[in-house]
Amino acid sequence: MKKIIPLVCLALLLQPAWVMSRPATQSATIDHGGKIETKYDGFNGETLMRLRKMKVTCDGFKDNFKDGCASIDVTLHLPGTQLNFVHHVTLQVVFESKNWDQGRHGYERRGLAIVTDGETLRFGQMKLVPLGDTLMNEKMVEILETTIPFDVFKKMAAAQSVEIQVGSSRMELRDKNRAALRDLGNRVLATS
């Protein structure tokens, strides 16, 4: 018994600071339906906090892209193993359609604009993410990606309304999408 108590005390002292400093309220999950994961990428020397692909709409879009679904995938990039400074954010917009005849977003139709509470922020052309060696699928999948500053991500998470526009395709984030973005942002520790 005399050996166990010092070992437990030593284990508590050796815990990383971010484990000890997290308030108990952050451990409660928010029911937004999104899947958030945190992992360390040793190859790039960064910690990744990611909101995995989350559906935004399947009602088509405010253009000619009918019978399609759109999803977002957001990754926060934090240098090293710390959890209080985000270097940049990767935003992916995933378009899925059963209709192969519908045109994809050509280069000239990949301009990204994010509207947060009426303020329009423009980010230029998104790049097409290659799907790799995938088998033919009955769905047409297109993944567009760009990097945005963390300040823009925070605006998106705090906004009452967020609309993402890619070319002429426009979709408004639902309450659950915005709650998932807030949950992801809340996992970054505030510096005091």
Number of domains: 1
Give me the CATH fold name.
Answer: Immunoglobulin-like
The CATH class designation is: Mainly Beta
The SS-based structural class is alpha+beta
For the biggest β-sheet, the strand order reads: 1-2-3-4-8-7
Q: Please state the average pLDDT score.
A: 81
Q: What is the overall shape?
A: globular
How much helix is in the residues?
A: 10-25%
Unreliable stretches covering 5 or more consecutive residues: 4-28
- E-strand count: 10
Provide the CATH architecture.
Sandwich
**Tally of individual helices:** 4
What can you see in these coordinates?
- There is one protein chain.
- The radius of gyration is 20 Å and the shape is globular.
- 19% of the residues lie in helices and 38% in strands.
- The strands form two sheets. Strands 1-2-3-4-8-7 form a six-stranded antiparallel sheet.
- It is built from four helices and ten strands, in the order H-H-E-E-E-E-E-E-E-E-H-E-E-H.
- It is α+β, with helices and mostly antiparallel strands.
- The chain has a single domain, classed as Immunoglobulin-like (Sandwich).
- The longest helix has 12 residues.
Summarize the structure.
This protein is an alpha+beta fold and 192 residues long.
